[in-house]
Write a structure and sequence with these properties.
Elements lengths: L2 E3 L3 E6 L6 E8 L6 E5 L8 E3 L5 E3 L5 E3 L5 E2 L3 H9 L5 E5 L12 H10 L1 E3 L5 E5 L3 E5 L2 E6 L5 E7 L7 E7 L4 H5 L6 E3 H9 L12 E4 L2 E2 L10 H14 L6 E2 L1 E5 L3 H12 L5 E5 L2 H5 L16
Parallel strand pairs: 4-9, 11-19, 14-20, 16-17
Antiparallel strand pairs: 1-10, 2-3, 3-9, 4-5, 6-7, 7-8, 11-21, 12-13, 13-20, 14-15, 17-18
Helix pairs in contact: 1-2, 1-5, 5-6
Length: 306
């Protein structure tokens, strides 16, 4: 069955790029509502934006959505991953600024807040996008694809010149709390030189070691180091789940990426939906419901206490 959160959630934080404080509220919603953002600081024009792939207008440093009135919300991917990974299908997200709080650079605090609030069933079946034929995108040395599968699987490869990251690969089936256990605590990462460049042009003003892994010539600058030896590829998988959730419905398919990112995942969704012979909308049966990312999650799945 479709779900929403049991009670409203309020989260305080700051934006990664703006550095500005923000208050975000996640509110329950009815069946078939989907996920919408509302900019409560904007009045006099449409301030509602659906969390859908074709409303994405920028993927350079994060995922940003915008409506026809020019109202935007950026850095939505970690929150979207948390909603998908905990099985929340319907919610209204109110925010008083242009950027979702970065928190610690992972989805962990969002996931913990959702699990504390709890979810409730809405007595309406879940609909999903079932991939029926492979769809792929290649941009330079980046390759991403969606292939038929009975559940959402993510297979991700990364390769960075800095030896602190290097080459990493991981494959996970997202069923039965896998996202919460395996990915939700994994933080965004960057090179120290990139942080300096971004800050020199007014970006990443809220960035620091408290909300990202920063590496510099083979050294992890964060005193605590990595949370997991392959935290970087796991974070890329977290991003992928958030970006794939912009399909608007859960995906039953295998997502494969070599050096993928926000841009190519969004291009892949656009390619998928431009090819009606490559997908179908299905009403999930009992087995498919059990295979969805948020099915059967337990408090013990949250590895760290957030």
């Amino acid at each position: 069955m479709q779900t929403t959160i049991r009670k409203a959630i309020t989260i305080h934080g700051k934006g990664l790029h703006s550095g500005a404080p923000a208050v975000l509220r996640i509110l329950p919603a009815s069946a078939n509502y989907g996920i919408w953002f509302r900019r409560v600081d904007i009045t006099g024009r449409d301030n509602l934006i659906p969390a859908l792939y074709d409303y994405v207008n920028d993927t350079r440093l994060c995922t940003r959505i915008a409506n026809d009135a020019g109202v935007e919300v950026s850095t939505i991917e970690h929150l979207m991953a948390a909603l998908a990974g905990t099985g929340v299908h319907n919610a209204l997200i109110e925010i008083d600024g242009p950027e979702v709080p970065i928190m610690d650079g992972s989805s962990e605090e969002f996931v913990a807040a959702i699990m504390r609030a709890g979810t409730m069933e809405l007595n309406v079946p879940v609909r999903a996008i079932r991939v029926t034929k492979e769809v792929s995108i290649r941009v330079d040395d980046v390759e991403v694809s969606l292939q038929p599968s009975d559940a959402l699987e993510i297979d991700f490869q990364i390769e960075f010149a800095d030896r602190a990251i290097g080459a990493q690969q991981k494959t996970l089936n997202m069923s039965n709390g896998s996202f919460v256990r395996e990915l939700s605590d994994c933080r965004t990462f960057c090179l120290n030189s990139d942080v300096e460049k971004m800050q020199s042009i007014g970006l990443a003003r809220g960035g620091g070691l408290e909300n990202a892994i920063v590496v510099d010539n083979g050294v992890v600058l964060n005193p605590e180091g990595f949370r997991r030896t392959d935290e970087c590829v796991r974070h890329k998988m977290l991003d992928a789940l958030g970006d794939l959730s912009l399909a608007g419905l859960p995906i039953l398919g295998r997502y494969t990426a070599k050096r993928g990112g926000h841009r190519t995942t969004n291009l892949l969704l656009r390619e998928l939906f431009s090819r009606p012979d490559s997908w179908e909308m299905v009403e999930c049966n009992a087995q498919q419901n059990d295979n969805l990312p948020g099915a059967h999650i337990q408090p013990a799945d949250l590895v760290r206490s957030a």
